[in-house]
Amino acid sequence: MYSRSHSTVTRQLREADVAVVDADEIARAVVAPGLPAFRRIVAAFGPDVLAPDGTLDRKALAARVFADPAARATINKATHPYIRLEMLRQMLSHFLCAKRVVVLDTPLLFESGIANYVNLIVVVYVSPPVQKQRLIARDLIEPLAAQQRIDSQMNIEKKKQLANVVIDNEGSLADTRVRVDLLIEQHLSPGLFPTAVAWTLLFWPGLFAYSGLSLFKWLKL
Ligand SMILES: CC(C)(COP(=O)(O)OP(=O)(O)OC[C@H]1O[C@@H](n2cnc3c(N)ncnc32)[C@H](O)[C@@H]1O)[C@@H](O)C(=O)NCCC(=O)NCCS
Ligand SMILES: Nc1ncnc2c1ncn2[C@@H]1O[C@H](COP(=O)(O)OP(=O)(O)OP(=O)(O)O)[C@@H](O)[C@H]1O
């Protein structure tokens, strides 16, 4: 979701040593020149979406993707399989590092169906007018472009209804920080490490899956 300050929340979680898998970060990494998602995007959108240095011209791509649902479906198809694989790989990596709680920071949690596989859904909430105003101020874009970006995702009020925990970010960043501290204390504390038996049962399949996905990534399939 745009401009709810999830980046700020993610930073705070990482500072508190909570394992975070950041979908936006991964989405940027999987479209590096030469990678399969990059090739698919160029094949679908043509060379107009390339910057002079051969990387994606994200601004040009954003202008097309957020104005047109068909173009958005195309970029989703080109990138989402690779984003999901890398998210899975990172989750397994955290798991193998004995992290019991992993936070998936993804703007498309409900739209992509990932919500069905998580234990707790946290939504960082700001009302639509505040969201739009912050987006315009941060990205220096026109109100129409800001609205198109917001409309490309599920309505925030609906997301709020579907959440188990809502972090209200209408107030100051300091207020939000306090709410995130509470979230960590109440829901994200590592707790007890799994028993040795559980760990043995879980470790080997996890290691095999992680190795397979790493090989997949390494071979750039
Ligand atoms: C269209 C692109 C090039 C625009 O890049 P830009 O640097 O301007 O934005 P950035 O990647 O930082 O995304 C900012 C926000 O846009 C929203 N957003 C991005 N892609 C999408 C999408 N396909 N559908 C809905 N919202 C999206 C998210 O809220 C995200 O947090 C880029 O967002 C992209 O490659 N999107 C497709 C991959 C994707 O779905 N990413 C979302 C996370 S999985
Ligand atoms: N509580 C707040 N008070 C004032 N400004 C805020 C607050 N929270 C976020 N902002 C501002 O809103 C903008 C969006 O925040 P941020 O970039 O962290 O959001 P984001 O959810 O990561 O956005 P996006 O998904 O669009 O990348 C930033 O300019 C940030 O400084």
TrEMBL record:
GO biological process assignments: coenzyme A biosynthetic process
Domain of life: Eukaryota
Claim: Nuclease is one of the keywords in the record: no
UniProt keyword annotations, A-Z: ATP-binding, Membrane, Nucleotide-binding, Transmembrane, Transmembrane helix
Gene3D superfamilies to which the protein is assigned, alphabetical: P-loop containing nucleotide triphosphate hydrolases (3.40.50.300)
Keyword ATP-binding carried by entry: yes
Chain ranges passing through the membrane: 196-216
MF term (GO), any: dephospho-CoA kinase activity
InterPro entries reported in the protein's UniProt record: Depp_CoAkinase, P-loop_NTPase
PANTHER family cross-referenced by the UniProt entry: BIFUNCTIONAL COENZYME A SYNTHASE-RELATED, DEPHOSPHO-COA KINASE-RELATED
HAMAP family xrefs: Dephospho_CoA_kinase
UniProt protein name: Dephospho-CoA kinase
Native organism: Physocladia obscura
